[in-house]
């Protein structure tokens, strides 16, 4: 019964992931439409700022999510340390934790810089777009970010349930 429930949950998560991926493709299409409209309005260097910002948005958000996920796994492993854990493994986990913590702080700095760049890009676009179009741009940026987060969360859940299912199936004689 538990195996059946895990399989149903995995199926539901995979279906949800497909919906999110479809929404992400639609969002990317809106981004392309916006870029195409801006090509005819902005100066080349201003368009380049927009395109670079959008590309960096995805990279920085993905980096932050990846580092946070890896850090959470290391912290989980550190919580499972007991008296039987050898000193070398403890030291390795501690070093990985410190490294990932530093990397995540660096990624947060990148995100703050990206937020400043977003305000600059919005200021540039405000010269060319109507208020409604500018609102559409802001919505696009927020949607892109939230879809990336949702996608990563679903991938993590799917991975977790796949591992649970695999472990459960191995434990059944």
Automatic annotation (TrEMBL):
GO terms for molecular function: actin filament binding. It is found in: Cytoplasm, Cytoskeleton. It comes from the Eukaryota. One of its GO terms (biological process) is actin filament organization. InterPro entries: ASD2_dom, Shroom_fam. Keywords: Coiled coil, Cytoplasm, Cytoskeleton. Residues 90-120, 144-171 form a coiled coil. The keyword Coiled coil applies. Residues 1-173 form the ASD2 domain. It holds the Pfam family ASD2. One of its GO terms (cellular component) is apical plasma membrane. Belongs to the shroom family. PANTHER family: APICAL PROTEIN/SHROOM-RELATED, PROTEIN SHROOM1. This is SHRM1 protein. It comes from Pampusana beccarii (Western bronze ground-dove).
């Amino acid at each position: 019964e538990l195996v059946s429930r895990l399989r149903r949950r995995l199926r539901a998560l995979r279906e949800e992931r497909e919906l999110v991926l479809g929404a992400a493709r639609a969002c990317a299409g809106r981004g392309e439409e916006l870029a195409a409209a801006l090509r005819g309005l902005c100066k080349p260097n201003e368009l380049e700022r927009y395109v670079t910002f959008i590309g960096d948005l995805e990279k920085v958000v993905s980096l932050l999510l990846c580092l946070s996920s890896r850090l959470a796994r290391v912290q989980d492993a550190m919580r499972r340390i007991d008296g039987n854990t050898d000193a070398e493994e403890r030291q390795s986990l501690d070093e990985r934790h410190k490294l990932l913590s530093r990397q995540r702080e660096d990624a947060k700095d990148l995100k703050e810089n990206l937020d400043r760049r977003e305000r600059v890009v919005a200021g540039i676009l405000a010269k060319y777009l109507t208020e409604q179009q500018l609102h559409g741009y802001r919505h696009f940026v927020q949607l892109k970010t939230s879809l990336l987060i949702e996608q990563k969360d679903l991938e993590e859940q799917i991975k977790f349930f796949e591992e649970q299912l695999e472990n459960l199936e191995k434990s059944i004689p």
